[in-house]
Design goal:
binds NADPH dihydro-nicotinamide-adenine-dinucleotide phosphate; single chain; 3-stranded antiparallel β-sheet
Length: about 325
């Protein structure tokens, strides 16, 4: 039998956490033959709710779940973890300035970086979900210098999956037949969902849709603003789709992407495609043996180039804002 993998979920008493922990315990993240031990962290005001989630995990009697650590102690939460999914973060409340939210999150991610660096298992893989996801991941990277930069990523898979979903609905095809969309840049409204290399059963999406106006307009804004549309409809932000995307992200990273398919991940930029180096930027990646590689050599047209630059500029600005919160 396989040794259990320890998976940390921070903000585990929140709504994404509530959707995510049963998926992990059922093997959706790491495979149906992979036992797991869940480490759940939340802040003291959420301790009672967190204990409720722990009770439900016991009651669900998941065969793969070999243990649960539910705690408000960051060190206890981080100790020995092989995978860390960082969902906890300070939400943007009405009337708060962007700088105030940034400053709260920078301090959270700075302290969690140290705990992970000192206590996580070697080669721990980190996925940041909490917003501003790219910049939180960057802060985590900066304050955990002994964790390799390639082990720290942020979630843009939800945006990627949303783009697949929109194309599938538009063409009335199975979502599993749509491949190789790309989310470039920041997990924010400046992200660029790009279908120029996307296919359905090996046919280019652009040729099938035959409507560049829609692809260059409404398609992009629908994906960019989908989060707000869900909040309007549900009166709560998206949770099951975010949790499912987090599982997809880790599963493909650990177990590999299928031949001929890439996915989108926020990763530490080396300046590929003229993206700013030294920020966490979403690129098309393939994964093999637990490591991601940026897909190289894709043609970028003028329309796309501008969008890649815009979202890159926003990330550079967020990085500066984050650093100004530190000083
Ligand atoms: P959610 O579980 O709905 O969201 C958690 C985080 O994920 C938020 O930062 C949210 O950003 C972000 N997020 C990223 N992508 C998405 C998406 N597509 N849809 C929705 N959210 C997304 O929030 P809850 O408030 O229910 O839970 C947060 C938990 O974190 C709570 O249990 C709380 O106690 C904990 N927490 C921990 C802190 C810490 O560790 N110090 C500090 C504050 C809270 P956005 O805010 O932009 O929606």
């Amino acid at each position: 039998a396989k040794e259990p993998v320890r998976v940390l979920v921070t903000g585990a008493a929140g709504q994404i956490g509530y959707a995510l922990v049963p998926m992990i315990a059922r093997g959706i993240m790491l495979g149906a033959d992979q036992p797991v031990i869940l480490h759940m962290l939340d802040i003291p005001p959420a301790a009672e709710a967190l204990n409720g989630v722990r009770m439900e995990l016991v009651d669900a009697a998941f065969p793969l779940l070999k243990g649960v650590v539910a705690t408000t102690d960051v060190v206890e939460a981080c100790t020995g973890v092989n995978v860390a999914v960082m969902v906890g973060g300070f939400p943007r409340k009405e009337g708060m300035e962007r700088k105030d939210v940034m400053s709260k999150n920078v301090s959270i991610y700075k302290s969690q970086a140290s705990a992970l660096e000192q206590h996580a298992a070697p080669n721990c893989k980190v996925l940041v979900v909490a917003n501003p996801a790219n910049t939180n991941a960057l802060i985590l990277k900066e304050f955990a210098p002994s964790i390799p930069a390639k082990n720290i990523t942020c979630l843009t898979r939800l945006d990627h999956n949303r783009a697949l979903g929109q194309i599938s609905e538009r063409l009335n095809v199975q979502v599993s037949d749509v491949k190789n969309v790309i989310i470039w840049g920041n997990h924010s409204s400046t992200q660029y969902p790009d279908v120029n290399h996307a296919t359905v059963r090996d046919k280019p999406v652009r040729e099938l849709v035959k409507d560049d106006e829609w692809l260059n307009g409404e398609f992009i804004t629908t994906v960019q603003q989908r989060g707000a549309a869900i909040i309007k409809a549900r009166k709560l932000s998206s949770a099951l789709s975010a949790a499912s995307a987090a599982c997809d992200h880790i599963r493909d990273w650990v177990l590999g992407t299928p031949e001929g398919t890439w996915v989108s991940m926020g990763v530490y930029s080396d300046g590929s495609y003229n993206a700013p180096a030294g920020v966490i930027y979403s690129f098309p990646v393939t994964c093999k043996n637990g490591e991601w590689t940026i897909v190289q050599g894709l043609a970028i047209d003028e329309f796309s180039r501008k969008k890649l630059e815009l979202t890159g500029a926003e990330l550079t600005e967020e990085k500066e804002l984050a650093y100004s919160c530190l000083s």
